[in-house]
Amino acid sequence: MRVLAAMSGGVDSAVAAALAVEAGHDVVGVHMALSRNRDQFRTGSRGCCSIEDAGDARRAADVLGIPYYVWDLSERFEDTVVADFLSEYEAGRTPNPCVRCNEHIKFEALLDKATALGFDAVATGHYAQIVTREVPVSGTEADGGARTVRELHRSPNDAKDQSYVLAVAGPERLARAMFPLGGFASKDEVRAEAARRGLSVSAKPDSYDICFVADGDTRGFLQSRLGSRPGEVVDVDGEVVGEHDGAYAFTVGQRRGLALGRPAADGKARYVVDVQPATNTVVVGPAELLSVDRIAGEKALWFDGVLEHEPDGWFDAEVQVRAHGAPVPARVRAVESGLGASGADGSGPEDAPGADGSGPDVSAPALEVELTGTPLRGVAAGQSIVVYRGTRVLGQATVSRAWRAAAAR
Length: 409
Description:
409 residues, alpha/beta, six-stranded antiparallel β-barrel, 9 helices, globular
């Protein structure tokens, strides 16, 4: 196969490209330039797609003996990933830029361009597995035959598993993706593989945090783009307890950086329990108000064959709401309503508005979740919720609303 290897300049993508070459594929390496600032440099382990990273990727390609190119996708990145990041925070939601990057850049812009150039697949250094299996076909003239289904599964490396941020790509795009690191159980194994092959990035530190906020100061980045917007911090009774420079800089579940002028009457810590962009208000309250057992999701995406085998609507699964959060048991069902989710007991108003004040999108595919174990804390609109059964990804959506059924009643 002709394979385009996405080479970020890190050890993971370098080894993924090496394994694609070793497998006998015709491999071409490409580095995605995502920053508009051509002079951007890494800050230790922070940031990625910098000048240094492009150089590291080129050296790795030279060692592997493959052609190497740099594609400037900075405008697309700014118009999709960064723009979404800003608009979501401005709307009082909590985005995940890595999910949006996979959706709009790696498995849309990059993959589409690769396909147009005649490549059969894109190989990346993600930690996840694609499992191919044959399922029987029934009810047609081909009864007794089979069709191929590609499933997305967790990596055996629990600490690095990236199936959560890959779920948004969906089955059609993942059909043209390769994850050569899927079988590695640890990062040490990948580094050893890089060292054995003479790749200089074998000891390069991992990048973390948001790549376009290289100094790690998310609040500072938001303020530089959205400006200062002073407002009030109030408690759940509406009493003013502090001030802020912009409600967009806060997210549900946040405890630090509140700078409250007075302690709570009971002396306990207070957390952000709501962000109201319409009034530029941040609401704080006790930890117990963060606990939820019902979640509604919009823009739902399901993998091949999942809903065909759940004829009764509700089915048992596990859900995960953070990239490295623990999956929790739940009952899940697909619905045709963007925000108007309700629990099995009828709790949750059908016309509940979104965090930005908009009403429900009654035509969009969505999902409803009832947690059947311990409630989750600090679930915010804008987060991704991924549905699993064991290691297999069943579907994904964007959280539109989360609540406690007991409170609704």
